[in-house]
Design goal:
With about 525 residues, this protein is an alpha/beta fold. Helix content is about 45%, strand content about 20%. It has 3 domains: about 90 residues, no CATH class; about 230 residues, Vaccinia Virus protein VP39 (Rossmann fold, 3-Layer(aba) Sandwich); about 150 residues, Serine Threonine Protein Phosphatase 5, Tetratricopeptide repeat (Alpha Horseshoe). Helix 17 packs antiparallel against helix 18. The longest helix has 20 residues. This is Tetratricopeptide repeat protein.
């Protein structure tokens, strides 16, 4: 019989945070394979385009202030699978080239706790053009302890005061996954909420995901007058909670705030934070809050306390933008810890356009509806939503069956829009551990539209990249494409490959006979 062990910890010092670190360090980019750790909601092309618009607006504002010559550094914390960084850079470069106006140069720095991730990004084919242009670098960064950025490509180190432009910090699904304190407000007093963790005595032999799945949490309050002392650095925020909250458990992001304060020291002129998370920025959201429950997805996450982060920096003169309406799945905000923070009209207008009026949260809500109703949608509706999502590959993949069903009734204009969408999608596709044969899906849709030259291009990419898993249908379609394009030798070669897989394939035998009779 196995005995369970039970130990008491401060919440921010509980071993679950070490298990969290170990999970990401061991798995690297594989943590996002098959969406074990969710990434779509904060990494899709639509949210990346919104971020690029805000960054572009900020660059315009810096030029308009007459402070545009020094480079602007953009640091992404916990860049994970790398998909967000790729889409932001891709869109930002397009905005730069399309506008053709004078802007300060920029450098995007992807960071993560796991060095495996850093090295995987450095070698990823999608990033090579940005590295070559000097737009992208990488650094291992521990948000709880580190205070400098050691860049992998350039070999330079960014230290306190090195940056003359404000630092742009991107933090998606970040604050909900690093250590947080847990306090309780009751009768106007502050308590530390300690956690008892009960687990098997054999927990050391478990993998991190197994360990998290097996333990249980129990909470107990302990009077904590230190939070009420004037020497506590965030005393003003705690006072606000004492005044307005009752019987409330509050996740307090002391580690996250300290991380932002250390990064702030790198620049002589402050920072702009662009962030998205399951995070509450309204004080009312913390009223009568129950003790937190971990959301498990291989690792775990909690709710981020944007109210505390916002309040701390507002008291230092910062301005903040968060949606005036309640969010459903993801809260996207900006904090301007800058001199005269409201003197950034292009950035604020970009937030209004891309977040406040219709943003990533609204898009994801629509996406949930589309996922359930794709089989009832028409081709124009599919094309419209695909365009709204900036020609996202994942949406195309899940839509190909419905598109195929609708093609017999489609017109030439719709087919041309499909072709254009496929080409735009392919130009910005980011390959992850969770691989899709996107070229195959694109090639087959184009084949059904009788666009043989385009179909051949994508199907041949599929054959090259999936050599061990080519199905007979691909060779048959390629043979037809080549036949229609009068590439007889290529057509015969693909028929022979098809017959090697299926010697009795009737259509292939008929085609072979046709060629032999010519």
């Amino acid at each position: 019989m196995t005995d369970n062990l039970k130990q008491r910890y401060r919440f921010s010092e509980a071993p679950l945070w070490k298990v969290q670190r170990k999970y990401y360090e061991e798995l690297g980019t594989k943590a996002w394979k098959n969406d074990q750790v969710p990434q779509y909601i904060t990494s899709n092309p639509m949210i990346a385009a919104a971020y690029a618009e805000m960054i572009f607006g900020f660059l315009q504002d810096r030029v308009n202030k007459g402070i545009g010559s020094e480079p602007v550094f953009i640091v992404e914390l916990g860049a994970g699978a790398g998909r967000l960084a790729y889409h932001v850079l891709n869109e930002l470069c397009q905005l730069r080239d399309y506008a053709g106006i004078s802007l300060p140069s920029f450098r995007y720095i992807m960071t993560d706790l796991a060095m495996n991730n850093v090295m995987a990004w450095k070698e990823h084919p999608a990033f090579q053009k940005f590295i070559a242009e000097g737009l992208l670098d990488f650094a291992q960064f521990d948000a709880v302890h580190d205070s400098v950025l050691n860049l992998v490509v350039s070999g330079t180190t960014i230290r306190e005061g090195d940056l003359k432009q404000p630092l742009i910090i991107v933090a998606n699904y970040f604050f909900d996954s690093i250590p947080q304190d847990l306090i309780y407000i009751g009768d106007g007093k502050v308590y530390e909420t300690d956690v008892y963790i009960e687990h098997s005595e054999h927990h050391d032999s478990l993998k991190p995901a197994e360990w998290l799945d097996q333990f249980t949490l129990h909470y107990e309050h302990r009077r904590a007058p230190e939070y009420e002392q004037e020497t506590y650095p965030y005393r003003n925020v705690i006072s606000m909670y004492q005044e307005h909250l009752e019987d409330s458990h509050i996740l307090f992001p002391a580690a996250g705030i300290a991380c932002l304060e250390r990064l702030n020291l790198l620049s002589q002129t402050g920072f702009l934070l662009i962030t998205a998370d399951k995070g509450d920025h309204l004080l009312d959201s913390w009223k009568f809050a129950e003790p937190p429950q971990l959301v498990l997805h291989g690792s775990f996450s909690l709710t981020a306390n944007y109210h505390a982060i916002k309040s701390v920096f507002e008291q230092k003169g910062a301005a903040a933008l968060f949606p005036p309406h309640h969010y459903k799945d993801i809260n996207v905000g900006c904090i301007f810890h800058l001199d005269k923070p409201m003197d950034y009209p292009n950035l604020r207008l970009a937030y209004r356009r891309c977040i406040e009026r219709f943003g990533p949260d609204e898009f994801f809500s629509l996406k949930r509806w589309v996922d359930r109703n794709i089989d009832t949608m028409g081709l124009q509706q599919i094309l419209s939503f695909w365009r709204l999502g900036d020609y996202d590959a994942e949406f195309f993949i899940q839509s190909t069956k419905r598109i195929s069903d609708l093609l017999p009734e489609s017109n030439d204009e719709e087919k041309q829009d499909l072709l254009r969408g496929i080409e735009l999608m392919w130009s910005s596709f980011y390959v992850m551990e969770q691989r899709y044969d996107l070229a195959l899906d694109a090639g087959l849709v184009l084949f059904e539209m009788d666009m043989y030259e385009h179909s051949k291009h994508y199907l041949e990419i599929s054959v090259r990249e999936e050599q061990d898993e080519v199905v007979s249908t691909v060779y048959y379609c390629l043979a037809i494409c080549c036949f229609e394009l009068d590439l007889v030798e290529d057509a015969l070669r693909y028929i022979q490959k098809l017959l090697e897989l299926e010697p009795e394939h009737e259509e292939a035998l008929a085609l072979m006979s046709h060629f032999e009779l010519r």
